[in-house]
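Possible regression after last week's pipeline update?

I re-ran a chain I had predicted before the update to compare outputs. Posting the input and the new output here so someone can diff against the archived version. Not blocking, just want to make sure nothing changed silently.
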Amino acid sequence: MIGPGWEWVSASATGTSHLRVSRGCDDSGACIFVSGRKESALVAVCSDGAGSAQRSSIGSRIIVRAFCRSARSYLQGGGTLAGFSREIASDWLDDMRGRIEITSRTAELAPRDFAATLVGCIVGDGKAKVLHVGDGAAVYRTTNSEEWAVGSWPSHGQYASTTYFVTDDPEPSFQLSEIEGSVSELAVFTDGIEHLVLNFSTRGAFPPFFDQMFSGFKSDGIAKNRKLSRHLCNYLGGPSVCDKTDDDKTLLLARRIQHVSPQEHL
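New output (post-update):
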């Protein structure tokens, strides 16, 4: 069956504040396309490890891999976007927390030492869901629309410069947002670039940034565009971004294309 596919680019860059103390990047991200039994979907996810948690880079990787694994199992098992509920989302978070618990025991540490956020998107043909814990965000544009919209707004904690994490006790505070319509372009990112791409006074997206980022897409293939991903990594690690933010940053950009058969791609 001929159906829509996706092309995407993704990159993470270490923040200058981390480089100054010889610390690596605590962010993680991934994008896959899953052919499901009833419904196929793009899965895009990123996670930002807490700067105060000593193994947060491992926590963010566990969260990203677990989200992709859960989404693949759900769709291949016959799950649909319409049927994806808060109860199912809670089960996915429990799975992530369980994997972190096992890893923390092995390392003789506490789960909070692996604290990290989550922005996870599942995008079908006419509907999308965003599972969100903490800061970072997802921005999208639907087919035949020129407007950029925020699919899930960053959640900040009770105090300045704080947020929520998947490892929070007794359970994480999470948002499950629904996007109606066919998403044609999607951006998923961690909080390192929030203030460069979001308008906090209007709680909206900053269109010039996303227009520029997607202008480089040629829509001539499917799955990860590795050449553009390298360019994106250089951009995120370059002075035009690092002069404005010293944090780690991850950005995933995906555009729907119409001329391929849906397959699963890593």
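Follow-up from reviewer: compared with the archived run. The radius of gyration is 17 Å. Marking as no regression found.
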